[in-house]
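Write out the 3D structure for:
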Amino acid sequence: MTTLAGLQIMTPRALRGRVTAPFMAGIALAGFGLGPPLVGLLADRVFGEAGLGHALLATCALAYAIGIIALVRGAPYLWGSMMKPEAGDVRAVR
């Protein structure tokens, strides 16, 4: 399950747009603002001239590790919100 889908599940229907917009803006600003400078810094300072591929790999590995940590820490909240039916939900009628 992606982060955005989990966010949609956890957020009440009336607030989904207000929660999703800042989340997407933050992800885009962090990705475009931090990604390229970090790759350049690693390529210049750590891996040397021919180390652009290694810098990209290290940056992706760091981003994946942060994502996995966030997934593991947020899983209890996601599962807890999936078990509670919302008002007007078809599953709640049964």
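The chain has a mean pLDDT of 84.
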